Amino acid sequence: MPILINLSPNAKLADLKLAFKLLLAPHKWLKGEGLDQLNQTFKNYFQADLALGFKSGRAALWMALKALGLKPGDEILLQAFTCVVVPNAIRFNGARPVFVDTQPNSFNISLTDLKKKISFKTRAIIVQHIFGYPDNLKAIKQLCRQYKLVLIEDCAQSLGAEYQGQKVGTWGDMAFFSFGRDKMISSVSGGLLLVNRPEFSSRVKHFYQVFKPASPWFVFKNLCHPLIFVLVKPLYFTCQWKKFSLGKAILFIFQCLHLVDKPVQLIELQGKQPKNQLQKLPNAMALMAQQQFDQLKWNLCQRRAIADLYLKELSALAVKPQPEQRPAYLRLPLLVSQPAKLLQLAKKQQVILGDWYQYLIAPRGVDLTRLGYHSGNCLHAEKLAVQVVNLPTYPKLSWTQVKKIINIVKQYAHQYEK
Ligand SMILES: Cc1ncc(COP(=O)(O)O)c(C=O)c1O
Questions:
Q1: Which of 209, 317, 373, 413 is disulfide-compatible with 334, CB 3.0–4.6 A?
Q2: What is the pLDDT at residue 212?
Q3: Pair 184, 133: CB distance under 8 Å
């Protein structure tokens, strides 16, 4: 079986069975106990004041920002080296994203640049635990207290990570999670907002009342998704001709039928908000996410064991965690001098590695000026974006596959790194 970091990596047999069962039970698609149960699970796990499921992580972030009652001219600080949907959520709330640099050799935010960019217009900081590596939460929280700023944690990639023994998601005033197709747990699309400060809970509940569940078509697509990839994945490198293969041809057909979407829509790249983005998580998606949450302990254990081996074997290239960080390791980032060569070498051996985020504000094609990013604003982050490659850690990877990946990276390092 090829190793494909981004194609439905979490789906196990139990998930396929559940998706199939739900496909045959349309009465459970929109309504049922699933969403309340998932909300309660997150509320208990994080001891939060409120947990609410959304159609996506970006919708959950939109709601967190809505609860702040932002006015035009307000500024929200966020890390460069992010996904376009994060600054978009700020802009859709009428505020201005202000990008903060990362540290030189880690994806964590630079405290020096953060302090420099706080102004009298700043209302909140969104801190992102990229690849599941927790950011420097203690210092950031202190800054938020000092300047009376709201702290929002972007936990889209970090469910289960800890900083100084405390779970990420519990440090901020609010935090959001993603259940996207290649996240820690997945319902193909989905997200959740966690509120830790009661004064925000009442506002969030107020706005949430008008949210409707996503459409039956959205549920149908998401339930088909893992089943489609059962077909696509084994054929991904079969009958290759130039850039094509049998698996890719099948995927293309499903894309033409609009049964498989890109995770970020074209109009989002242009900085526009798609219709129907602000919706609740439908029951079926909540049931899928809950089933994976029930295995979170195992999931984290597997990812950490795989990451430990990468860190041991590839210590010259892997980004090491600090002692106070206990990452969830959604992916294991490497910093290399020629990422394209490594990706190519791996592909020749039927391994697709990750390229998050080879574009400073991902994915390719984002209109940076519209977002207010100007080249040179965040130099460290720009440098990281041209060096990063990420290795898969999804729990289904076998040890033989992990060793294969390690060998590929060693081959690359031998040929191209000094
Ligand atoms: C860092 C980060 N923040 C936010 C999001 C948005 O999550 P979703 O795709 O569920 O809207 C993503 C998704 O890729 C992400 O990687």
A1: 317
A2: 87
A3: no
How far does the centroid of ligand 1 lie from the alpha carbon of residue 229, in Å?
21
Kindly state if the Cβ of 56 falls inside 6 Å of ligand 1.
Answer: yes
- Residue 86 Cβ inside 6 Å of ligand 1? The answer reads yes
Residues in CB range of 295: below 8 A, 6 or more apart: none
Q: Which residue's entry shows tokens 């219709």?
A: 275
158-186 residue pLDDT tens = 999 999 999 999 999 999 999 999 999 99
Residue whose Cα lies nearest atom 14 of ligand 1: it is: 83
Q: Please state, in angstroms and rounded to a whole number, the distance separating the CA atoms of residues 278 and 391.
A: 32
Centre of ligand 1 to C-alpha 240, Å, is 32
Side chain identity, residue 355:
D
CA of 359 to the centre of ligand 1 (A): 15
Low-confidence ranges of the chain (pLDDT < 50): none
State which of 65, 90, 127, 157 you would mutate to test the pocket of ligand 1, scoring each by most atoms of that ligand within 8 A of its C-beta: 157
CATH number for the segment(s) 32-208: 3.40.640.10
Q: Which CA distances in Å does 135 have to 100, 159, 296?
A: 13, 13, 21
Cβ neighbours of residue 62 closer than 8 Å, sequence gap 6 or more: 89, 92, 93, 277, 278
Which residue, chain included where needed, has tokens 């947990």? 51
- Cα 65 from Cα 124, distance rounded (Å): 9
Going from the C-alpha of 261 to that of each of 28, 224, 241, the distances in angstroms are: 23, 12, 24
What's the CA-to-centroid distance between 3 and ligand 1, angstroms? Answer: 22
CA distance 327 to 307: 10
Q: What is the CATH number of domain 295-416?
A: 3.90.1150.10
- CA torsion, ordered 256, 259, 261, 263, to nearest 10 deg: -160
User: Is ligand 1 within 6 A of the CB of residue 87?
Assistant: no
Q: Whose CA is nearest to atom 10 of ligand 1?
A: 57
- 302-335 core/surface letters (b: 16 or more CB in 10 A; e: else): bbbebbebbeebbeebbbebeeebbbbbbbbbbb
* CB of 82 shorter than 6 A to ligand 1: yes
β-strand pairing of 50-54 with 191-195: antiparallel
Cα 127 to averaged position of ligand 1 atoms, centre (Å): 13
Q: What are the sequence ranges of the domains in the chain?
A: 3-8+215-290, 32-208, 295-416
Distance CA 235, CA 229 (A): 10
Question: Which pLDDT score is estimated for 371?
Answer: 92
